[in-house]
Specification:
The chain contains nine helices and twelve strands. By secondary structure, the protein is α/β, with parallel strands linked by helices. Among the domains are: 39 residues, no CATH class; 146 residues, HUPs (Rossmann fold, 3-Layer(aba) Sandwich), CATH 3.40.50.620. A three-stranded parallel sheet has the order 1-2-3, covered by helices on one side. Strand 11, helix 7 and strand 12 form a beta-alpha-beta unit. Helix 1 packs across helix 8 and helix 8 runs parallel beside helix 9. 35% of the residues are buried. The structure holds zinc ion. The site of zinc ion has 5 residues, from loops. Zinc ion (ZN) binds next to loops.
Length: 303
């Protein structure tokens, strides 16, 4: 493919419907939207409702209405992960055929008692069940990550990144004992299915990108480019979220919050907040999108 800008840009926004969008979600939505539109790309929407117990009834509809109210119109149909179970099962089947999947019978309590080391993606599971040959039904399924799996990629904002997956992440669960597919599997399968070329999202997901790239390689899927955006923090230094007291976006005053999001992203919007209508402000922002103006990423101390 030529590097002269002829390859199609496909971006996406992929919220979890666990509650209403807040300012942190708006920053991510606006960043991915502008990066796509500034390249005449498509901007797709995916509702990440794969983890069913976390889904709040009505939240997905609320998210769609909020995006429309902020002028963030997506292309094509919305993809719901809850309707993609067959694709995830098929991907697991391919990993199983490669001998990379095994059943794990360890309970959370057993693992907690082991005092396991913690890596950037959580506790590092040391592969205790790898050779137990447990049946696949009634157990969680883990990905065997044992070969030297040093993963490197170049983030468009954060620069070169590198991680030893085997040493710092370990064998991750791809399907839980309750039958729920892991977020990591769903994201990788769906990004390829939707033809996503560029992932623009919050820097809290910078480190999971290593695992996502590894999974995509195993499944022989194309590797997207990445741009990880600076995070919005709550007072006290934790990432802004529902748990840290984020207020829902106010659909009655979208222009002011959009202006604030552009300001946060370092884009130096003209005038004062609320001075321009939503559509006018978005058009200005597409014309003037400069990712090199994004503030530096500072990662949270610990989730
Ligand atoms: Zn186990």
């Amino acid at each position: 493919m030529s590097s002269g800008g002829t390859s199609a840009y496909i971006g996406r926004f992929a919220p979890t419907p666990s509650g209403p969008l807040h300012f942190g979600s708006l920053v991510t939505a606006v960043g991915s939207y502008l990066d796509a539109r500034a390249r005449q790309g498509q901007w797709l929407l995916r509702i990440e409702d794969v983890d069913r117990p976390r889904v709040v009834p009505g939240a997905a509809d609320d998210i769609l209405r909020t995006l429309e109210c902020f002028g963030l119109h997506w292309d094509g149909p919305v993809l719901f992960q809850s309707q993609r179970q067959e694709a995830y099962e098929e991907a697991l089947h391919r990993l199983r055929e490669q001998g990379r999947l095994y059943a794990c019978g360890c309970s959370r309590r057993q693992l907690n008692a082991l005092d396991l080391r913690r890596g950037p993606l959580g506790l590092i599971y040391p592969g205790l069940c790898r050779d137990r040959a447990l049946g696949f039904s009634g157990h969680s399924l883990r990905l065997r990550i044992d070969t030297p799996a040093r993963i490197r990629f170049e983030d468009r904002h954060c620069g070169p990144r590198e991680l030893d997956l085997a040493g710092e992440v370990g064998d991750v669960v791809l399907k839980r004992v309750d039958g729920i597919y892991a977020y990591h599997l769903a994201v990788v399968v769906d990004d390829a299915f939707q033809g996503v070329s560029d992932i623009v999202r919050g820097a809290d997901l910078l480190d999971v990108s290593f695992l996502h790239r590894h999974l995509a390689s195993l499944l022989r899927l194309p590797l997207p480019r990445y741009l990880h955006l600076p995070l919005v923090y709550a007072p006290g230094g934790r990432k802004l979220s529902k748990q840290t007291g984020a207020q829902p976006l106010d659909r009655a005053r979208p222009a002011a919050q959009l202006w604030q999001a552009l300001e946060f992203l370092g884009q130096q919007p003209p005038g004062k907040e609320g001075g321009m209508a939503v559509q006018e402000l978005l058009e200005w922002a597409i014309d003037h999108w400069q990712p090199q103006r994004l503030p530096a990423v500072q990662l949270p101390v610990s989730a």
